[in-house]
Design a protein that fits this description.
Oligomer: single chain
Radius of gyration: 18 Å
Strand content: 15-25%
CATH class of the largest domain: Alpha Beta
Helix content: 40-55%
Shape: globular
Number of domains: 2
CATH superfamily of the largest domain: Aminoglycoside phosphotransferase (APH), C-terminal lobe
Number of helices: 10
CATH architecture of the largest domain: Alpha-Beta Complex
Largest sheet: 5 strands, antiparallel
């Protein structure tokens, strides 16, 4: 079967229409079949766990690239809706918190460990001074465990607003762990991520503070936590993101966050 029009794209993959009621997430050249198989396996665990997410149907090779065929979910992403209606930022933020808190009520022992994934990412950061790496890993060791579904990259671009309610996509980073680490990642993305498009960058700068505040208030209503508990996750989560090959400007913002949260 030939892939259809491109629907969206990200750093690691493109998404294409694929037959009736399906999409193809096609990894970029250089990604191994094992990555596609791993994503399909993890997505299957989550889908079976009653979380609203597309079903993974098959792993395929198309034009010498590997990919996963998923059930197609109709609707815009929350990010697209937010771009179109920035005046509704607080409402979208509360919805994001609702969806994430519900996700965090699920668990499965077959998911990978959040702590080990963070540890591997921190260990893989190139150029990090040894004293900072040691301090971050020590901070991670002090953090409490958990057994919740944690998406690992939960943001408005990974939530589709389907006609019958929000659906979460892109489960490649899902783990079993502490929900506040997942929340810290969401807050971090709202603080430091900057799109290349200058108009979108200005829009996000204008609404991100209101969005972040409304999101945290709503999540705390649903799953109460102390501010210090969330802050303690910021250094490990920010340090782990440094392993993702980001632009220099974002790396600088992440390093400042890591240093500000370490006890020295």
């Amino acid at each position: 079967m030939m892939k259809g029009r491109r629907i969206s794209e990200g750093r690691t993959a493109e998404v294409f229409a694929w037959g009736d009621g399906q999409v193809l997430k096609l990894y970029r050249a250089g990604w191994r079949r094992e990555e596609a198989e791993r994503e399909a396996f993890l997505a299957g665990i989550v889908h079976a766990g009653s979380v609203r997410t597309p079903a993974a149907i098959d792993v395929v090779e198309v034009e010498d690239r590997h990919g996963v065929i998923f059930e197609r979910i109709e609707g815009p992403t929350m990010l697209a809706a937010l771009q179109a209606r920035p005046y509704q930022a607080a409402a979208f933020a509360r919805m994001l918190a609702d969806v994430q808190a519900e996700m965090h009520s699920h668990t499965n022992p077959n998911l990978p460990s959040q702590r080990e994934r963070l540890r591997r990412s921190i260990a893989a950061v190139a150029g990090m001074p040894d004293e900072i790496r040691t301090a971050v890993l020590a901070a991670l060791d002090q953090m409490p465990d958990g057994d919740a579904f944690c998406h690992g990259d939960f943001h408005p671009g990974n939530v589709i607003l389907a006609p019958d309610g929000p659906v979460i996509i892109d489960w490649v980073d899902v783990t079993r762990g502490n929900p506040l680490a997942d929340v810290a990642r969401t807050v971090l993305l709202a603080r430091v991520a900057r799109p290349a498009d200058i108009v979108l960058r200005l829009l996000i700068t204008l609404v991100q503070r209101r969005f972040r505040a409304a999101y945290l208030r709503r999540y705390a209503e649903l799953r109460p936590f102390a501010a210090a508990e969330l802050e303690a996750w910021e250094a490990p989560v920010a340090a782990a993101r440094l392993a993702e090959g980001l632009e220099t400007a974002e790396n600088g913002r992440l390093i400042r966050i890591v240093k500000s949260r370490l006890p020295y």
